[in-house]
UniProtKB/TrEMBL annotation:
<keyword id="KW-1133">Transmembrane helix</keyword>
<keyword id="KW-0175">Coiled coil</keyword>
<dbReference type="Pfam" id="PF20503">
    <property type="entry name" value="DUF6730"/>
</dbReference>
<feature type="coiled-coil region">
    <location>
        <begin position="1"/>
        <end position="35"/>
    </location>
</feature>
<dbReference type="InterPro" id="IPR046617">
    <property type="entry name" value="DUF6730"/>
</dbReference>
<keyword id="KW-0472">Membrane</keyword>
<protein>
    <submittedName>
        <fullName>Uncharacterized protein</fullName>
    </submittedName>
</protein>
<feature type="transmembrane region" description="Helical">
    <location>
        <begin position="82"/>
        <end position="103"/>
    </location>
</feature>
<keyword id="KW-0812">Transmembrane</keyword>
């Protein structure tokens, strides 16, 4: 029985120690509850403010770009594809006509020279036949040339 008394005494001491520990834990818990603990969130606030400012700038830039795009779209003219093809066809036609006109104008001097040579040859042939048919006319013409040459 002495052992049993010893074990009971030991258990009683342990229970008393446990109760004391619980009392200390309760006091510490009450102290922690009453302790005004406020975490420092200033760095987080600064980061969030910077992020918010950056987002505002980005949104403003996007709105400006959107306004520019809308302004350009409002000023643009939408043409159907057939109208564009027609305009290109007209442009090509005008360029072809213009090129042909320039080509014809560059050939005018050659045509004039050819017409002059043809006319001169025709006239000389006509006068030659006239003088062959009318020898008196030829004599009168030669006299006239001599008189003109003397003057």
């Amino acid at each position: 029985m002495a052992k049993l008394d010893e074990i009971a005494e030991l258990l009683t001491e342990e229970i008393n120690g446990f109760e004391k520990s619980i009392g200390r834990l309760e006091k510490a818990h009450e102290n922690l509850k009453n302790l005004p603990l406020r975490p420092d969130t200033t760095e987080i606030k600064v980061l969030l403010n910077d992020y918010g400012n950056n987002q505002k700038k980005i949104v403003e830039e996007q709105q400006k770009l959107m306004q520019k795009i809308l302004h350009k779209v409002e000023r643009s003219i939408m043409l159907p594809s057939w109208a564009i093809k027609l305009l290109w066809g007209l442009l090509v036609s005008v360029l072809l006509v213009l090129g042909f006109s320039v080509y014809q104008l560059s050939r005018i001097s050659k045509k004039e020279e050819a017409a002059f040579v043809k006319g001169r040859d025709s006239t000389m042939g006509h006068y030659g036949r006239f003088f062959d048919e009318n020898p008196q006319g030829k004599e009168l013409y030669q006299k006239w040339l001599e008189e003109k040459g003397k003057k």
